[in-house]
Amino acid sequence: MREAVFAVLRKTPQTHFRAIENDLRKQVEGYERHDILALNEVLWTLLVQGVLAPGKNSLNPDLPFVHVTEYGARCLESEEILAHDPEGYVRRIEELTEDRAPSVVLESARQGLLSFLDGRHAAGLVLLAHAAETVVNDLLDSLIRSGRKVGRGTKRLEASRLAQGGRATAALRALPGRRPPDEIAEEAETQLSGLDALLRLVRAPDGSPRIPAVERDLVRARFLLFPDQCRFAYHAIGWLDGKPGD
Question: Is domain 2-77 given the CATH code 1.20.58 in the classification?
Answer without folding.
Answer: no
